[in-house]
Amino acid sequence: MQPFMKTFSKQPSKRRLISLAVAGACATFAPAYAQDAAKPADTTDAAPQVIVTGIRASLQSTLNLKRNSDGIVDGIVAEDMGKFPDTNLAESLQRISGVSIDRSNGEGQKVTVRGLGPDFNLVLLNGRQMPTTDLSDLSGRSFDFSNLASESISQLQVYKTGRADSPTGGIGATINVITGRPFDNPGMHSSVGVKAVKDTSNDHVPGSLKGDSVTPEVSGIYSNTSADGRFGVALSASYQSRDSGFNRAGLANGYQGPYLGSAVIDGQTLPQPGQPGSQNITNRPAQDALYSIPQNFGYGVNAIQRQRTNAQLTLQFRPVKELTTTLDYTYSENKIQTKRNELSVWFAQTPTSTSTWPSGHVVSPLTYSEVYNTPQDIAVIGADYATKTKNKSLGFNAVWKATNDLKLEFDAHHSTAESGADSPWGSENDLANASFSRGTTSIDFTHELPIVSMPAANLTAAPIQAAGSWFHNSYEKSVVKQAQVKGSLNLLEASNLNFGLGYTDTTNRSTFSNVQNNTWGGATKPSDYPANLFQANVLGSFFNKLEGANSANLFPALYTFDFAKVRQVTADAVGNQAAYLPNFATADSDRRLQEKTTSGYLSFNTDWDTAIPFHSSLGVRVERTKVTSVAQVLPGTAVVWVAQNELPLSFGGQAFSNTDASYTNVLPAINLDADLRNDLKLRGSYGETIGRARYDQLQGGLSLGTNANVFTGGTASVGNPALKPVKSKNLDLSLEWYYDKQSVASLALFHKKLDNYAGTTLVSQTLYDLHTPIGGNYYKAAIASGCTAADTNCLRNYILSNFDGQPGVKKTGVKADGNLDGTITGLPTDPLLNFQTTTYSNQKSATVSGAEVNVQHMFGQSGFGVQANYTYVHSPLKYNNANVNDQFAILGLSNSANVVGIFENKDWSVRVAYNWRDEFLAATVDGNGRAAPVYTDAYGQVDVSVGYNFNKNLSFQLEAINLNDATQRQHGRSDAATLNVTQAGPRYMIGARYKF
């Protein structure tokens, strides 16, 4: 074998070249310094060299990282100390081919790579597995990049192929976030930056909700090393305040159905031809067509205030040149306050409806209208959400060069992520008020903004009063304790053996408590409220970017109110303060999951001096994981019919479950790359990777939905601690042409075969011996009296009038709309309530394949350049809109593209970026927990950044995010089935930065 290997006498081994290249890429606080350091000591006779800085240096370092790594790797390197290309790390990642992002409130939050969603991409901080918590996505594994500021980040590395030395969890990619260290950039370096942020989305919310017009950002970085190079310290800190908003119109609970055109289900489907009401249907869905009917529709305005604090301290000590130790502490805090007001209506699917329909096999109405015999409610809702997320990480690292051929590394850290309420009202809180004045109600879906009309509504005659409420307190904490020992041993002349052992202990705990008032028919009298407590606003003004906002048929007003004032007035009127406060003392549900993983790996790397020189890396990783789930849940005790369609559950007592499971994985990794020419590289890779199921999929314990529906019954969910991780067999091929120092063109092909995918399964079952009054003896008597199943007011009025005082029936009065108020509780003789229970199992397989085309080109020394990439992703496993059963499909699968124009000289730097993502499946369950697709429409956004160097120390920046003011939309089974549309707005930042 030895004669075929490269020798040091001929040329340096690739291993040494890689080490130099990576070292240069990692010295990212000052790319120009890295290039200076790489020069020969004597340059007397050398040709003049151009030292590049800023964007060009960043692109060159990124290109070197891609070229000299094992496997397919992409990345982004900071342009300078404290100057990352984008204000948000996720927004930087979306510039990389194959990477798409999910946005929240106009800001990048989570990433999808090569069609695999956020839960299947592993995020590391300096090579360490990090915990994550997110109350908006309770118990997921996806890392929320909005928690990290970009100022302290020196580099992002995206590993798209499996490597034996990489921790498991990233099927799509493993993303390593690297922070700056003082020894990477010797000497003293420091800078201070300030920004003023103008978020125009804040201007589009009601005046009573909006925050400050301009908010501040400030950051500072200090890095220094001792003269003898033995000590180093780096400190970075940032504070960012942002006041923003977004306005959304949509069906929060999705559509009722789908129903078959020929189906006959009393009270829920369209009248059949010849039946009363059928004459009001235009272009009725065909007998073999599937159709859906809107369940509710609302217009909401959301004002958001965020305060984000980040800090990192790094200490390095090198007692001898062979030993480098690093101690670092990272802290982040993200506080978000959301104030929301909403106006919404519910449809009862009455036989007196009028509707028009498109042609097709899967349809939803173009227009839909219902007529009611008694006044219905117009919901006027206010919400006050406040959450705080903290991340803390303490780590220690030691690298020891034991001999010229042996290097050892030890790394350990203890990291936590914790999210909880940041308000005396809890984490998520809603007050529902109502005016019982709605008559005929129509909705028109033929506009970009669906139009709700209520011509007979009269809020003066029927003033707003309190209805139901919900005070929710959520909490989640995740802890990662990890220790790793790594080594690298040089063998022969151009080979090395990498090896390592690791232990990771991950725990995740999630709890919640809920205080709910199910007084949807009215909890107070209108006279309990001062006349000025609710303010009317022009509804259409909040959706001016959407066609239809100026429609004369649009209901004219959206009502806002002060949450704290209305909460206090309502609690005083009801005479029960505890009913309008969260329960911080006890939890209704407490779920804990622990994963203990022991791992080991070997990797043998060799350079081959064959006709076509190539490099091989052959490795294997072995992991053993034990899962322990402990869950406390709240059993249901009764079902109570309190209002027109609501069947809230009563709860009591406690139940516990404890489950253990374990699994072992052997994961090979083969990476090959051949130098076809000095500027042309061919790569091939085969590897097996795993992605663990979400924590909520693994956590045991049965959880019941708090409110069942008269027509659809109840909902429940339960995890499966015995779920195995998804295993993916990955094939990758890449051809890369490095035709210039700062230019590259590449084509990558990939194919993934995934097994053990945890598909969602809906099981129809009865639970806890819960009986529903729907279908019971009282209900049957009401039907016999002439009431229909669709007219729930008639049914309730009959039961409360004729059976008041009988077991389970209690009449409490008359509501403002003239209907009787009271409760009807399920009896042991009544039918058992049916629950649609969501659970998970390893029963799915899928394939994902695609291609990435990438070009980076700098036009000589002109200062102009362009980056462009396109990613095509395909899977034969797609959601079938014509299938009403529960089904599995890969979420987040979409094509994407980026085009970035660049200009830079010694004074100016300009970057104009367009990012596009095609339509993708966002969920397979709608807002009401039913099996139904949720698609996110294609979206494109333009971002611009301009920098001006006043002198070598002082620079100015101007940035614009979403300059084209793009809006977002989601739809259901058909493209016309609008689920929601969202309007936000551009964000502008102007700042200055001073380097000392």
Q: Layout of SSEs?
A:
Layout lengths: L13 H13 L4 H7 L16 H14 L5 E5 L11 H5 L5 E6 L2 E7 L7 E5 L2 E2 L23 E7 L13 E7 L9 E11 L15 E11 L5 E20 L4 E6 L20 E2 L7 E5 L1 E25 L2 E24 L7 E3 L5 E2 L3 E4 L5 E26 L4 E16 L6 E11 L2 E4 L6 E3 L11 E27 L3 E23 L17 E4 L18 E4 L2 H12 L14 E20 L5 E20 L2 E6 L4 E6 L3 E23 L2 E12 L3 H4 L4 E2 L2 E3 L4 E4 L8 E15 L2 E29 L5 H8 L7 H11 L6 E6 L5 E6 L6 E27 L5 E11 L21 E9 L3 E10 L2 E6 L5 E6 L2 E11 L4 E8 L6 E4 L6 E6 L3 E9 L1
Parallel strand pairs: 4-7, 12-16, 13-17, 36-41
Antiparallel strand pairs: 1-6, 2-3, 4-5, 6-7, 8-9, 8-51, 9-10, 10-14, 10-50, 11-13, 14-15, 15-19, 16-18, 18-22, 19-20, 19-21, 20-24, 21-24, 22-23, 24-25, 25-28, 26-27, 28-29, 29-32, 30-31, 30-40, 31-35, 32-33, 33-37, 34-36, 37-38, 38-41, 39-40, 41-42, 42-43, 43-44, 44-47, 45-46, 46-49, 47-48, ...
Pfam family, one: Plug
GO cellular component, one term: cell outer membrane
Protein name: TonB-dependent receptor
What do these coordinates show?
Helix 7 (777-784) packs across helix 8 (792-802). The longest helix has 14 residues, at 54-67. A hairpin with a 6-residue loop joins strand 49 (968-971) and strand 50 (978-983). The model is unreliable at 1-50 (pLDDT under 50). This protein is globular. It has a single domain (2-40, 48-256, 298-346, 380-431, 470-518, 585-770, 835-995), classed as TonB-dependent receptor, beta-barrel domain (Maltoporin, Chain A, Beta Barrel), CATH 2.40.170. The chain is built from 8 helices and 51 strands. The strands form 7 sheets. The protein has a 29-stranded mixed beta sheet that branches. A 5-stranded mixed beta sheet has the order 1-6-7-4-5. A 5-stranded mixed beta sheet has the order 12-16-18-22-23, with no helix packed on it. It is mainly beta and 996 residues long.
